[in-house]
Amino acid sequence: MAVLNLDKAPLLEAMRDTGNRIASCERLRIGFVVDTHLVAEWISDCIEWFKTFESFDVRVYALGAWSEPTQVNGRGVFDWVYGYSRRTFDPFQPVEITADLILADSAENVDFNVDIVVWLATIPPRCGDRNLAAYGALSIQLGIEDHAPPFWDETAKQQPLTCTTIWWHSGNFWRARPVRTASVTTDQGFRFTLNAQQPLSAVVHMIAAICLEIRAQGAQWAAKMELIPEQDYDRAAKCIKRPSEVESTSFIVKKAARSLKLRTSKRKQKSRWFVALRRADEWSYSHGRKFIPQGFSPVQKPIGSAMADPFLVEREDRTYLFFEEVPAGHSKGRIAYSEVFEDCTLSKPTVVLERDYHLSYPCTFCHEGDFYIIPESRAAKRIDLYRASKFPDEFKIEMSFLDDFAGADTTPVFLEGIWYFFTTAMDPFMQTFLFWSHKLTGKWNLHPKSPICSSLKSSRSAGAIKLVDGRLLRPTQDCSTRYGYAIVMNEIDTLSPTEFHEHTVDIILPTWTSSLEATHTFNRSGVFEVVDGLRFDP
Description:
The protein has about 550 residues and is of the alpha+beta class. The protein has helices at about 20-25, 40-50, 75-85, 150-155, 195-215, 220-225, 245-265, 285-290; strands at about 30-35, 40, 55-60, 95, 100-105, 115-120, 135-140, 160-170, 175-185, 230, 270-280, 295-300, 305-315, 320-325, 335-340, 350-355, 360-365, 370-375, 380-390, 395-405, 405-415, 420-425, 430-435, 445, 465-470, 470-480, 485-495, 500-510, 520-525, 530-535. The strands form seven sheets. An eight-stranded mixed sheet has the order 5-3-1-6-7-8-9-10, with helices on one face. A four-stranded antiparallel sheet has the order 12-11-30-29, with no helix packed on it. A four-stranded antiparallel sheet has the order 13-14-15-16, with no helix packed on it. It starts with 19 loop residues before the first helix and ends with a strand.
């Protein structure tokens, strides 16, 4: 049974640029370098998964004797903790690899004869300035400190994020460029080896995405990567340490205290999302160029229900609020709307979209006189565009952008005659993709900068992309503390079919009213501004 969560859908293999290699049906030759026929189980999963790609020719090279990063002998506190955790989940358990091996004493004595080398051996490479493959080599960094056991530090130090990095070596192993990084939520439980599953899955997916890009783009890919500043990188000098008895005992104490706090806290109470409105006057975003918390008033909702993901649209001097509604006693969302009156009160909600799967994030917009909604429907693994047949009460499906792709919170923007679409894949780790099209209903093209973000701190969309005071602002969610914890406001500096760049200009924390746990959507119209929040019901 596989220990990793591996899925080809987020790789969007069919949408990759069709370069010379694909046109000639060449397979990318990938050389995985391991220690010997015994490898960590996650590495076995990785290699077996790569062998299922028709685009890849997989070869496995074994260098020397296998050894665990951290030995478990049962004599100390850490050995007990590590052994207990590994009985639940152990991606580092040695298994015998089933692939045919090419044996060598070291990298100096083998002719790899491949396009790209993926170095997964624990033995540090000793190959001088030799270029191992046509497109160099990839190595991995597991965790921020790269200590053994992997990802222990993040759990032991209660860090919110666990990071992994893919390094590219264009000429030798002493210099490298960080070409892909992912940050995922740290599993804070006592069984800390569970924290390895998501980042290891991210590692494998990032390597696969890089290999697909190399196959499609060839030398163009290498030229783009060479624009990344090169850094000193001596893997042999990495600190491989064993947690001390003091650190291990502290880990047990912290996890016991955390467990007790969770059991005795108010988490047993039910928290629900709600929506708050204000008029876009002296406190508006365009006036202050920063978020000002004053003036928001919660809108009334039925007892026990939830409202979230608010979007504002205007039509003929009237304003409408579209939102996700979860009725009392239910967990499945649907899309509803209310008219917004001058005093920030709302009309009775009207349901406009309801399916047998969860709907949320009703990204509502107007184009050439027609109104559209792109709701979040990743539970159905599809991204659909609905057009209003009778605004605001009736919407009918216009088309599906992507099938068999669980994209979350899809948000479009129309700029200089081109449509751009931002959507986020949640599994096996959070990463936001950018697409472009010549028409709203046209074929999507994968942007060459995709994924544009693989960090929980600023990935998933948090509202419509708007031009505010001359700045094109894209709100995103900061999910590093918890789901939908805060809103990050990004200013888009460059957006074209080939380029994308943005930088953070503001952060909206869950402090704009009392007792908030999270806030994850912000939108505005010409008259109103709206935000949502999560708090415990009284």
